[in-house]
Amino acid sequence: MKQTRLSLMRRTMFVGLAFLLSASPLHAAPETLYWEDLMPPEGEKALEEAYAAAAAAAESLSAAGARADAAASDLPEDGTPMPGADPDDPYGTQPAATQIGTFDVVEELNGKEIRLPGFMVPLDINQMSEVREFLLVPYFGACIHVPPPPPNQIVYVTSEEAVKFGWEPIWVEGVLETKRHMNEVGSTAYSLRLAKLEPYTEQ
């Protein structure tokens, strides 16, 4: 009789434990993504075409610059720029660093908890070198030393708590949204609410 009661108690405990596990599933780890995962399948071809068009435009501007240099001899000897000219580019020969690409996104990623590597571009920074807003970009120097990547290759990151800024590569974790953010540094097709930031290490 005693053995029967023990057996019944064990069975009841097992059923209860199974119910608790089914009612409270374990928290899934964030999905690790890489930058190519953020671009739709058709986006790569469109980007190649956009870069080809930009290269052709740059070549045209270069030719225009050569003509401007040749015409510079006709300007006043004191180098006075033409009326209304940009003081930093008096002859209008320097092309602006424009952002190439589209805001096309992978809709299935909206609302997913993800993990993504990249570099920080600070949008606000305090005296302690901390930020609450930054752009996550795929390579060092993007948006600073070279034109910004396409909008769907930049993530606008916000953090409730200030995090330390650095130039080293990092991993960010958080909920990804297909939400645009317009900024003169670089506009983005994705946004992320930061949950965790850590130094980059190989997987």
List key phrases describing it:
203 residues; alpha/beta; OB fold (Dihydrolipoamide Acetyltransferase, E2P); 5-stranded mixed β-barrel
Question: How would you portray this structure in words?
Answer:
The chain has a domain at 31-42 and 101-199: OB fold (Dihydrolipoamide Acetyltransferase, E2P) (Beta Barrel). Helix content is 25%, strand content 24%. The chain has two helices and six strands; from the N terminus they run αβαβββββ. The chain has helices at 2-23, 43-71, and strands at residues 31-32, 113-122, 130-137, 155-164, 170-177, 190-199. Strands 2-3-4-6-5 form a five-stranded mixed beta barrel. 18% of the residues are buried.
Main β-sheet, in a few words? 5 strands, mixed, barrel
Shape: globular
Number of helices: 2
Question: What is the distance, rounded to the nearest whole angstrom, between the alpha carbons of the first and last residues?
Answer: 56 Å
Q: Work out the number of β strands.
A: 6
| Physical arrangement of strands within the biggest beta sheet | 2-3-4-6-5
Would you state the CATH class of the domain at 31-42 and 101-199?
Mainly Beta
